[in-house]
Specification:
GMP Synthetase, Chain A, domain 3; single chain; Rossmann fold; five-stranded parallel β-sheet
Length: 519
């Protein structure tokens, strides 16, 4: 198929991210670049290690655009591998540590990765199939004769910059969208798209001695949209291997954190820390949120007690439509995800593929200067993802439903695939979830469609109750249904100890639905 041609930004980039980071290292040699536990690297140290990673990969036969995979927790080494792979001209393929062994095998086979960097704790996920793959293996934190040793590999490599020539259309990274079950889809971002993203770096303060705390995994685009601008800005990335709300607050205080990217479930857990107000977070300038809608009540709490600006991004890993909510400047719009970002155009389309009237709910389709190249090796999936307006202009279909309010702020309804069709009526699970979450005894909630002989499917509420709650499932159900119209009422409520979530906090509704539809 023809290449996707995103619109050109008003101020197009003139350097690749690789060049930007190269410049940052030259300008800030003694400044801190990476902090992870006891490891602290200056920009001069990081730059040398990036060069060694790049030269080591070239020595292993990795050519420009070849895929290099990583399966590891956040660490200084992960950052080196990611940036070093880019400097070698490779396409980074960070793998989800939440994926099943079957899914990981499909990802590695599909990507054709030349090299796999692997951490000890994830060996059980790949040991059953690695021998079937033609991939060179590097152990990042363990010894095994079947693997190359990371530090030995770097010691044997040159520390000079290989200065690999990179084209705008070269793949930057390959991120797989499925980390649990099913056939993974590889999302390709090219160097142009990532360079366009860097226009946010200076306005967001990443170029002003920022200290960015990242507690979501580096295999996630959620993390990369904050990690990469921090690196481009010559600032400091502070990495957590595993998120813990109290440990996060302690680290933010100790490291005088100025910037952070968090997902909604992390904000909720942080704000629920009993002694939250005892931590000194006065250095915080900007907090970002993405990956899922942040509830209005949580935004209010964050604005009231957590210093610094709060900015919410709505968008997809594939790119296209992006909206921005500067929550502290629009406190009356906390129920929305903001307005289209500069250069972004969003249309709302109905089941017939036509745009819906103003104020009505439709599927969100968007275009912007930052759009993926396509799904790796799957032109068919890429074509299915595209919607064209009457002029033939390409928009990406999000699968999310929403409407614009009278001021042009986008209000999300639900994922299209999560919409419940009961007796021919469309029920948006998100509307019911908000009612359940309004209950003071409910700390987490998900609504799914389950089979119904009478209605085809019917909504079921799954809730997590606060520790001291002593109300029954029927009590919660009765209270919720008293606030819902007859056609939208829940058929039942069931309690859970917790709801399954991905590593970036998204509720895994497919996992919740599976037992009911398998019966």
């Amino acid at each position: 198929m023809e290449p996707i041609k995103p619109p050109t930004p008003e101020d197009p980039p003139t350097q690749t991210v690789v060049d930007m980071i190269r410049d940052a290292a030259r300008k800030n040699p003694q400044a801190e670049a990476i902090v992870h536990e006891d490891t602290r690297l200056t920009w001069a140290q990081l730059d040398k290690r990036i060069n060694r990673v790049a030269n080591a990969l070239i020595g292993l036969g990795v050519a420009r655009t070849d895929r290099v995979a990583v399966l590891a927790p956040n660490s200084a080494r992960y950052a080196e591998i990611f940036l070093g792979g880019l400097r070698a001209g490779a396409c980074l393929t960070p793998l989800s540590t939440m994926a099943s062994s079957e899914a990981l095998q499909k990802m590695l086979e599909d990507s054709g990765a030349k090299v796999l960097f692997l951490a000890q704790q994830y060996r059980p996920l790949v040991d059953g199939f690695l021998d079937q793959l033609n991939v060179q293996r590097v152990a990042t934190d363990f010894q095994d004769p079947a693997f190359l040793d990371y530090e030995t590999l770097l010691d044997d490599a040159q520390s000079a910059d290989p200065m690999v020539q990179i084209d705008w259309s070269d793949p930057f990274n390959l991120i797989y969208s499925s980390g649990t079950t099913g056939t993974p889809k590889g999302i390709v971002h090219d160097h142009w798209m990532r360079a366009v993203h860097m226009e946010r770096a200076e306005p967001s303060g990443y170029c002003d001695n920022a200290r960015t705390l990242l507690s979501t995994p580096l295999y996630s685009n959620t993390t990369l949209v904050s990690f990469l601008p921090t690196m481009v800005g010559g600032s400091t990335a502070v990495l957590m291997s595993k998120f813990d709300a109290r440990a996060y607050l302690a680290l933010a205080q100790k490291e005088r954190i100025t910037h952070t990217m968090l997902v909604p479930v992390q904000y909720k857990r942080i704000m629920d820390v009993p002694d939250f107000d005892r931590f000194d977070l006065s250095a915080m300038r900007v907090k970002f949120s993405t990956s899922a809608p942040l509830r209005a009540d949580v935004k209010q709490d964050v604005l009231a007690r957590f210093p610094g600006k709060l900015i919410e991004y709505y968008g997809l890993t594939e790119g296209g439509g992006v909206t921005v909510l500067v929550a502290d400047e629009t406190p009356d719009k906390l129920h929305t995800v903001g307005q289209p970002s500069p250069g972004t155009e969003i249309r709302l389309i109905g089941p017939d593929g036509q745009e819906v009237p103003q104020g009505e709910i439709g599927e969100i389709a968007g275009r912007s200067p930052a759009m993926m190249s396509g799904y790796f090796g799957r032109d068919d999936l890429t074509r299915d993802y595209i919607w064209r307006d009457e002029d033939g202009t390409v928009f990406f279909r999000s699968g999310d439903m929403g409407h614009f309010d009278e001021d042009g702020f986008l209000v999300l309804s639900d994922r299209k695939k999560d919409m419940i069709i009961s007796g021919g009526l469309n029920i948006y699970a998100n509307d019911l979830e908000l009612i359940l979450l309004d209950d003071p005894d409910v700390t987490d909630a998900a609504v799914i469609g389950i089979p119904s002989e009478d209605w085809g499917e019917t909504p079921l509420g799954l809730v997590v109750l606060r520790d001291q709650a002593n109300r029954s499932e029927q009590d919660i159900l009765t209270a919720a249904n008293a606030r819902l119209g007859k056609s939208h009422r829940l058929s039942g409520v069931e309690t859970r100890d917790r709801l399954p979530r991905s590593s970036i906090g998204k509720i895994l509704k497919r996992d919740l639905r599976a037992p009911y539809w398998a019966k």
